[in-house]
Please model this.
Amino acid sequence: MKGELSDERRQEVIAWLRDRVPEARVRHILGVEQLAGELAQHHGLDVERAKIAGLMHDLAKYFPPRELLARAETAGIEIDSVCLANPHLLHADASAMVAREQFGIEDRAILEAIANHTLGRPEMSPLSCIIFVADAAEPSRGTSSALEILRRVSWENLYESVGRASDCSLQHLLERRYLIHPRTILTRNWAIARSQAVRKLRKKTD
Model:
């Protein structure tokens, strides 16, 4: 299966999720699916690919730490000290594995978007940016001034919204004194630099 998902197959994914994650998480996942499709359409990207990645981004969200570590090791994914201390950070990579193994997703862009939705990655694709932002901004995340700004900016400058989503994540981690993965900071800095470049280009063409 590549960049398409029949309604029957979509319902199969949702049923699979309902057997494995709480209903609140299912609502979040469906919110990400919808927002990802809307953002993709707005920014001129493939809507179906975005919706598939949104639907499958948290397939491994509730896998136990031992399974996440085992899957990462088997796949040859680097397990650094931060991931070793918090294996939950590997659920994005594991979700991409499940999307491929369980549901036959072969589209590399979709799999990368799923794998990048938690920590991001410098130079990630626009589709990955969409899923990264939709995961942070979908409606069930609640309301705050930072989230409202993120939601507004997501329609205006995709890269700036990645930077702001990273800021929200960093603020959450700092307030709780959690370990911060270096990729979160690298993603933020890359996104801010790219958003500044986009703004400069727009000024030149105005």
Residues 17 and 59 are 7 Å apart (CA to CA). The chain has eleven helices and no strands.
